[in-house]
Amino acid sequence: MPNIAVFIEQRDGAFKKVAWQMISQARKLADANGGEVWGVLLGGDAAAAAALAGKHGAHRLFAAADGLERYDSERYGTALAAFCRAQNPDLVLIGATAMGRDLGPTAAAKLGCACVSDAIGLKFEGGAWEVRRPVFAGKCFVDVVPKTAPAIVAIRPNAFMAADGGGAAAPLASFDAGQAQAAPKAVVREIVSADGGRVELTEADIVVSGGRGIKGPENYALIEDLAAALNAAAGASRAVVDAGWVDYSHQVGQTGKTVGPNLYIACGISGAIQHLAGMSSSKCIVAINKDAAAPIFKVADYGLVGDLFEVLPELTKAVRGIRG
Ligand SMILES: Cc1cc2nc3c(=O)[nH]c(=O)nc-3n(C[C@H](O)[C@H](O)[C@H](O)COP(=O)(O)OP(=O)(O)OC[C@H]3O[C@@H](n4cnc5c(N)ncnc54)[C@H](O)[C@@H]3O)c2cc1C
Questions:
Q1: How far is the CA of 246 from the centre of ligand 1 (A)?
Q2: How far is the CA of 211 from the centre of ligand 1 (A)?
Q3: Which fold has domain 201-323?
Q4: What is the model's pTM?
Q5: Helices 17-33 and 46-56 sit at what angle, rounded to 10 degrees?
Q6: Contacts of residue 69, Cβ cutoff 8 Å, sequence gap at least 6
Q7: Is 201-323 in the same CATH topology as 4-174?
Q8: How far apart are CA 45 and CA 281, in angstroms?
């Protein structure tokens, strides 16, 4: 029975959306192949997680809290490994976030199991898992078949869609996270956020992105202003990142972040296939481009043919006016 465990990431009590996306996808695989989907929560509000995990398709939620409120790779790695030893899941899914990229290999090293990073696809065929991930800076994809059970797989945020199955809260169970044996070798005293509280791209409901059409780094403020007015995250095409106008953390696309907001506003972005790979699952796409033949208009729900230097200040002013 290919039981799938999904790590539910929480920071300061806030859950990452990628957990619900992974649970939804895992439930589809479990329904087709048998087995259960289990949420695994370390720290945080177990009742709230159980409600959300159940709603998205989890059969059960395992939670441990003791000394796990704040992320620490040693403690979390020990806890996740202890969970796997006790419950024997076939597969463990973790979001490929900053935390997940640290936790996955840490737990895998403790368990001596396979760890596949940065996955964008997952199948169960012929009794084996097949994990798709990009290689060579996104130029090719490989399908990896992990040979251990469990195998740990880090899934890119927004690679899958979250589906609200409307299920009841998942039954809750606690587990021994092995903390009594874990002697911390380091203590996290303080976390200082580098982004100054900005909305995180992969979590955002609205994303405003700028492309080469902004002409220079000084004009990225037009993107940030509209993003701030909409309480949105600010993204960019790779052209803008490669030119050094904004840092890589803003890049949307095949070799950047995959976003799945309700609204994506592409400003001065042509719509290259590698950019679309990171945003085409957005629910509503608005494109602002002065070239009516730009490929971005083929995927846009609403297109505005015009000069972004005229459109964006007006749009930002209008949004501010409406939102007070
Ligand atoms: C392996 C690989 C991986 C890649 N990964 C990514 C990735 O992750 N993300 C990504 O974005 N790209 C990626 N790329 C690059 C991609 O192929 C494109 O080169 C890039 O997306 C182009 O960025 P752009 O649309 O900003 O620039 P351009 O293609 O130069 O488009 C600029 C657009 O701005 C418009 N414009 C110009 N002036 C104005 C104005 N005043 N008002 C309105 N519109 C205006 C133009 O009409 C044009 O459509 C990758 C490429 C490769 C080979």
A1: 14
A2: 6
A3: Rossmann fold (3.40.50)
A4: 0.86
A5: 50
A6: 43, 44
A7: yes
A8: 30
Tally Cβ neighbours within 10 Å of residue 54.
22
Residue nearest to atom 52 of ligand 1 (CA): 274
Atom 8, ligand 1: which residue's CA is nearest?
253
- The answer on pLDDT for 244 being more than 60 is yes
Q: Where are the domains of the chain?
A: 4-174, 201-323
Residue carrying the six token digits 């459109």: 311
Q: What are phi and psi of 8, to 5 degrees?
A: -95, 105
Buried b (16+ CB within 10 A) or exposed e, 287-303: bbbeeeebbbbebbeeb
**Does residue 285's CB lie within 6 angstroms of at least one atom of ligand 1?**
no
Instruction: Give the distance (Å) from ligand 1 centre to CA of residue 317.
Output: 26
Which helix (H) or strand (E) covers residue 33, if one does? helix 17-33
Which residue stretches of 88-178 are H helix?
Answer: 98-111
Residue located nearest, by CA, to atom 4 of ligand 1: 274
Percent of the chain with pLDDT strictly greater than 90: 85
pLDDT for 180: 67
From the number of C-beta atoms within 10 Å of its C-beta (0-12, 13-18, 19+), residue 264 rates as buried
Domain over 4-174 is classified CATH 3.40.50.970: no
What is the widest separation between alpha-carbon atoms in the chain?
64
